[in-house]
């Protein structure tokens, strides 16, 4: 099935992987970390340049959208660009991390993770999706192991390893049911087969449950969230940042591609009820438990769990519309993708700030890295820029306007409240509309709870003076921390500017999501494909 | 050239841009330069006030038709292509006009009273103060639901930091409690606003109002949305029993923070009720009316009684705020012209007189480093000017005829009595008379605690805490000029209330007309039921009459 056009479609990924392999092999002989970072950045930039300006076979010609196991569409395109941007951010953050975690191998593993995320974005087939997800997981084990020594580090690595393997197995088991039921690996064929055949009986539902369970681990949704706090706490800031963002994006994208697009209306009914329940549990548990946390990374772990709960609202909205038989309304997915982008931006920024504050080892005496919330006390004076940045990220995660996080929450709430179809869909006797309104009320209350712990961080930064035990040296020199400093500044600027001028972002999230659905559902019903008008070509030069 | 600069839309945008721009300039350039931070803050505050004055004086009071689009300006923002047609659309109308002007005026007061008191991290302080100013001016000029909400929430961050850094002893707790209380309520309000937007399919507030007047929602929906909106607005006002965050925030906040909090931020709550709840949800307003009135009067009496028992100057005035805001709400929910106009006017008056009182408390605190009433006495001898201002604002606060407080309180109490007498249904009429009488008792209590306070602190034998650092001086120029404009307005509104009522009357009539009608219908229905019951009894009574008289 692999044709030259597939290879040319995947050229950016191939570039990234080639760079990774090069670094792995040569890194054994040349230990210069800085140099390798430049090479990694070069690889990522080349891939990005190719994606932006290269002559890729593209989604702009819908007839050629599928190339065997991979395919390009608007969503895939932007996700790949986003993955490369994340790759650049994390590479820069790695250059500022402590030496122990920043070997050439770590760089190579990081690049592989980026390639995996890019492949998830373009996968159109079960096996490809699974392989891409594993391409994210396996280098992550390596990164976790390299990240931080000591008992806690080892504990967190092995915990993540075993649970991740288990989740992969569950996911694969679910995939096998999908294959067994439909006889195909390709998403469009599965969807077509589901659409025409009878999906009653326990097996399709079981397949959905297994797939959701496997992916719930990736996005750290209840009840598959247990690993997150321990793993975040035990590992380095960089790895925690990576775990907070990359698996979350991968899991959500897989859910969007798989559950949202493949699922027939009959199963969508189960799907939205499942999502609603998981969403309520996840955000409530994440937010409430985060209130008691004292370790920064643990707090952020629970916050990332809570955000997974918010994201599930978007999926729930979309599925409920599907279940109610409404025409493909992408509002829910658009809101979900917007929220994902907004969350990732603020999370990367948060961890970049923590790395920036942690400093590098070769700076003379070992400087303490902020571990507990109290360690941040007084930084409002000694590190004004970092403190402003961290506050901006916290307020954005809390969804306070005019920061970009507000628009994420607005999108989700708006989409959930806008569901007005009349249908007999119900949950525990509650009609669909009331259930969704109840969900948004719970989400709003949750957002208020979440504000309490985000605010605690800000309050500690500014309202408390540094204690003796928790003093970070107050030098503002960028030596060795330029990478993290750059990421911190760039993300802070993005959070503020996009918060004030969110038009492009909102528009993009809308433009991206319908196409993700169309590419399958139009394939599923040929007459719909004929009726739909040709899409305007997006000019990007 | 001059026409462009003096055009109301341009001035309106300038008055919004000035504080935000000033904040940016101060935060970025004056890190270690306190003097220029102060001067820049003064400059931008004056510029804001000048622009705002330009907007206010050009208001077309005599042409109600021109008021709807007065000073309307729109900047490109999200646009329709995004699917969320949210616009950066600003204007002022009769409802927001005075609140907007008051905000601009109090910014200057806030800068001036901080002039000598704030002595650390000045750049941050003035920058945040101006950010707060931009946020609150924005709230009153927003004509888009989301824009309104953004400004509404945005005021939280600067005030949170102002209280948290420049506040007094328990500032951390107070800042966090203030933020969380307000945020929790406003998130529910947010949902209510989104539901309204979705029902009427527009983000524009005037459009929303027009559509809601043409086709009101089903009453059950109205009540649900009203309660969601209520959560945020009632906390902001604050309405009893959601007021617990307020005294704490007031006591811990720096003086300028208290002035802006009492003067402007609380008014966002009453403004929200009048902008959204009452015009958009008239039937729900009518249904919940007795409850709302009872909550308001509970706030009046409770606030006054608690104020009587306070030993801390600032806390006393904070509780008097609870009481006074109860009056404003009472006026609004009397739902007649007198009451509503009185309520709005009273919320302006409260901003002026309580703003002044908080400023004076700040000046006392600066001199003696205490706010304990028992440690102070006879200060009129030391600081005669300060005492004069204090007496003056106290008289305004208790509603002496000739001051602004009288105009507002008198109107709204008249409104309440009128409502009570206009309601014929027995069940409501008794309640309303009870509410009106209790509210009047609040006026008496108000005079009691305020005059008693003045007597204890400013008259009698001189009692001062030890202060060996420097001699106590009377008011300086910055203090004088911070209070003088407020004092002018106390008399101006008190003597010529018509000038202030006239611009708002057309807008208020339009916004509240439907709710009044809905309430009158409901009261009439109740009265009819009463009459029917009476008739029933009348039919039964002949049988009773047959029983032999005793």
Mean pLDDT of chain A, to the nearest integer, reads 82
| Overall spatial form of chain B | globular
Distance between the termini of chain A: 31 Å
Query: Proportion of β residues of chain A?
Result: under 5%
Give the biggest sheet of chain B.
2 strands, antiparallel
Radius of gyration of chain B, CA atoms, in whole angstroms = 24 Å
**Strand pairing plus helix content of chain A: what structural class?**
mainly alpha
Q: Summarize the largest interface: chains and residue counts.
A: A-B, 35 and 34 residues
Shape of chain A: globular
Radius of gyration computed on alpha carbons of chain A:
22 Å
Strand order of the largest sheet of chain B: 1-2
Cross-sheet strand order for the largest sheet of chain A: 1-2
Q: Which key terms come to mind for this protein?
A:
heterodimer; A: 541 residues; mainly alpha; two-stranded antiparallel ribbon; 21 helices; 73% helix; disordered C terminus; B: 550 residues; two-stranded antiparallel sheet; 22 helices; 2 strands; globular
Could you explain how this protein is built, in words?
The complex is a heterodimer of chains A (541) and B (550). Helix content of chain A is 73%, strand content 1%. Chain A is an all-alpha fold and 541 residues long. In chain A, the strands form 2 sheets. Chain A has a two-stranded antiparallel sheet. In chain A, strands 3-4 form a two-stranded antiparallel sheet. In chain A, strand 3 and strand 4 (430-431) form a beta hairpin. In chain A, helix 2 runs antiparallel to helix 5, helix 5 packs parallel to helix 11 and helix 11 runs antiparallel to helix 14 (331-358). Chain B contains 22 helices and 2 strands. Chain B has helices at residues 2-6, 8-29, 34-57, 64-67, 97-114, 122-141, 145-154, 156-166, 171-200, 205-214, 219-236, 245-252, 255-280, 282-308, 313-334, 337-368, 379-382, 384-398, 404-422, 426-458, 477-495, 497-546, and strands spanning 73-75, 88-90. In chain B, helix 14 (282-308) crosses helix 22 (497-546). Chain B is mainly α. The radius of gyration of chain B is 24 Å and the shape is globular. Chains A and B meet through helix 17, helix 18 and helix 20 of A and helix 7, helix 8 and helix 9 of B.
């Amino acid at each position: 099935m692999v044709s030259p056009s597939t290879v040319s479609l995947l050229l950016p990924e191939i570039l990234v992987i080639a760079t990774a392999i090069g670094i792995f092999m040569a890194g054994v002989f040349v230990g210069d970390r800085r140099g390798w970072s430049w090479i990694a950045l070069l690889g990522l930039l080349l891939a990005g340049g190719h994606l932006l300006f290269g002559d890729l076979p593209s989604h702009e010609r819908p007839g050629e959208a599928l190339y065997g196991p991979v395919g390009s569409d608007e969503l895939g395109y932007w996700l790949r660009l986003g993955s490369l941007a994340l790759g650049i951010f994390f590479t820069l953050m790695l250059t500022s991390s402590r030496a122990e975690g920043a070997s050439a191998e770590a760089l190579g593993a990081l690049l592989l993770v980026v390639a995996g995320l890019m492949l998830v974005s373009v996968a159109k087939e079960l096996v490809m999706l699974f392989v891409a997800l594993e391409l994210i997981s396996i280098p992550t084990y390596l990164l976790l192991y390299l990240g931080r020594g000591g008992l806690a580090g080892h504990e967190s690595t092995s915990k993540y390893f075993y649970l991740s393997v288990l989740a992969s197995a569950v996911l694969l088991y679910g995939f096998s049911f999908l294959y067994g039921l439909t006889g195909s690996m390709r998403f469009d064929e599965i969807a077509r087969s589901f659409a025409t055949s009878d999906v009653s009986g326990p097996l399709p539902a079981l397949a959905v449950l297994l797939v959701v369970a496997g992916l719930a681990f990736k996005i750290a949704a209840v009840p598959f969230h247990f690993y997150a706090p321990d793993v975040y706490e035990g590992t380095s800031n960089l790895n925690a940042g990576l775990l907070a963002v990359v698996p979350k994006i991968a899991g959500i994208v897989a859910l969007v591609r798989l559950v949202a697009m493949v699922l027939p209306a009959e199963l969508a009914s189960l799907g939205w009820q499942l999502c609603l329940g998981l969403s309520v549990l996840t955000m409530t548990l994440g937010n409430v438990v985060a209130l008691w946390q004292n370790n920064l990374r643990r707090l952020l772990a629970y916050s990332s769990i809570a955000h997974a709960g918010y994201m599930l609202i978007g999926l729930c909205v979309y599925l409920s519309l599907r279940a109610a038989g409404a025409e493909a309304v992408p509002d829910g997915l658009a809101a979900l993708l917007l929220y994902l982008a907004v969350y990732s931006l603020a999370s990367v920024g948060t961890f970049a700030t923590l790395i920036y504050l942690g400093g590098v080892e070769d700076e003379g005496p070992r400087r303490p890295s902020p571990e507990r919330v109290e360690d941040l006390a007084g930084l409002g004076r000694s590190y004004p820029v970092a403190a402003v940045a961290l506050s901006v990220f916290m307020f954005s995660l809390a969804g306070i306007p005019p920061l970009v996080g507000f628009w994420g929450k607005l999108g989700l709430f708006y989409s959930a409240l806008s569901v007005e179809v009349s249908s007999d869909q119900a949950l525990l006797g509650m009609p669909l509309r009331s259930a969704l309104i109840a969900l948004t009320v719970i989400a709003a209350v949750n957002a208020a709870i979440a504000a309490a712990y985000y605010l605690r961080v800000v309050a500690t930064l500014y309202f408390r003076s540094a204690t003796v035990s928790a003093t970070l040296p107050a030098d503002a020199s960028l030596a060795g921390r330029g990478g993290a400093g750059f990421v911190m500044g760039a993300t802070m600027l993005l959070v503020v500017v996009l918060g004030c001028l969110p038009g492009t972002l909102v528009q993009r999230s809308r433009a991206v999501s319908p196409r993700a659905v169309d590419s399958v559902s139009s394939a599923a019903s040929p007459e719909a494909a004929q009726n739909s008008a040709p899409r305007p070509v997006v000019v990007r030069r | 050239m001059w026409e462009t600069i003096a055009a109301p839309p341009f001035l309106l945008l300038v008055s919004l841009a000035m504080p935000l721009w000033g904040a940016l300039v101060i935060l970025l350039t004056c890190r270690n330069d306190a003097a220029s931070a102060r001067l820049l803050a003064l400059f931008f505050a004056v510029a804001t006030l000048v622009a705002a004055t330009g907007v206010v004086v050009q208001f077309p009071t005599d042409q109600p038709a021109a008021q709807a689009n007065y000073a309307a300006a729109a900047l490109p923002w999200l646009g329709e292509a995004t699917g969320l047609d949210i616009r950066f659309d600003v204007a002022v109308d009769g409802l927001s006009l005075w609140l907007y002007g008051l905000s601009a005026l109090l910014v200057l007061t806030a800068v001036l009273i901080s002039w000598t008191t704030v002595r650390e991290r000045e750049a941050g302080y003035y920058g945040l103060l101006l950010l707060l100013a931009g946020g609150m001016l924005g709230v009153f000029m927003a004509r888009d639901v989301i824009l309104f909400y953004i400004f509404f929430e945005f005021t939280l961050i600067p005030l949170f930091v102002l209280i948290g850094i420049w506040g007094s002893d328990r500032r951390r707790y107070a800042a966090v409690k203030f933020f969380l209380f307000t945020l929790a309520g406003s998130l529910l309000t947010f949902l209510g606003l989104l539901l309204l937007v979705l029902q009427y399919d527009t983000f524009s507030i005037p459009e929303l109002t027009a559509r809601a007047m043409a086709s009101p929602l089903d009453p059950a929906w109205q009540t649900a949305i009203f309660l969601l909106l209520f959560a945020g607005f009632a906390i902001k006002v604050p309405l009893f029993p959601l007021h617990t965050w307020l005294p704490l925030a007031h006591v811990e906040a720096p003086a300028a923070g208290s002035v802006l909090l009492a003067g402007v931020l609380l008014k966002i709550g009453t403004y929200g009720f009048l902008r959204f709840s009452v015009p958009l949800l008239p039937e729900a307003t009518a249904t919940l009316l007795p409850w709302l009135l009872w909550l308001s009067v509970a706030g009046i009496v409770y606030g006054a009684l608690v104020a009587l028992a306070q030993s801390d100057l600032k806390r006393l005035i904070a509780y008097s705020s609870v009481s006074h805001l109860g009056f404003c709400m009472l006026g609004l929910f009397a739902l007649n012209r007198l009451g509503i106009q009185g309520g709005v006017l009273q919320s302006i008056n409260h901003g002026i007189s309580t703003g002044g009182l908080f400023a004076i408390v700040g000046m006392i605190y600066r001199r003696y480093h205490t706010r304990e009433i028992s440690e102070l006495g006879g200060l009129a001898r030391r600081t005669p000017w300060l005492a004069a201002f204090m007496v003056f604002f106290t008289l305004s606060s208790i509603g002496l005829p000739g001051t602004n407080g009288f105009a507002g309180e008198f109107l709204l109490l008249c409104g309440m009595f009128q409502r009570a007498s206009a309601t014929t249904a027995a069940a409501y009429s008794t309640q309303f008379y009870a509410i009106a009488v209790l509210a009047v008792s609040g006026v008496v209590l108000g005079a009691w605690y305020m005059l008693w306070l003045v007597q204890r602190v400013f008259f009698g034998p001189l009692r001062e805490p030890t202060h060996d650092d420097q001699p106590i001086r009377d008011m300086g120029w910055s203090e004088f000029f911070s209070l003088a404009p407020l004092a002018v307005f106390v008399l101006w509104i008190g003597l010529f209330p018509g000038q202030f009522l006239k611009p708002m009357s057309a807008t208020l009539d339009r916004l509240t007309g439907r709710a009044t009608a809905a309430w009158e219908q409901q009261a009439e229905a109740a009265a009819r039921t009463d009459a029917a019951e009476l008739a029933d009894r009348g039919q039964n009574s002949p049988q009773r009459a047959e029983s032999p008289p005793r």
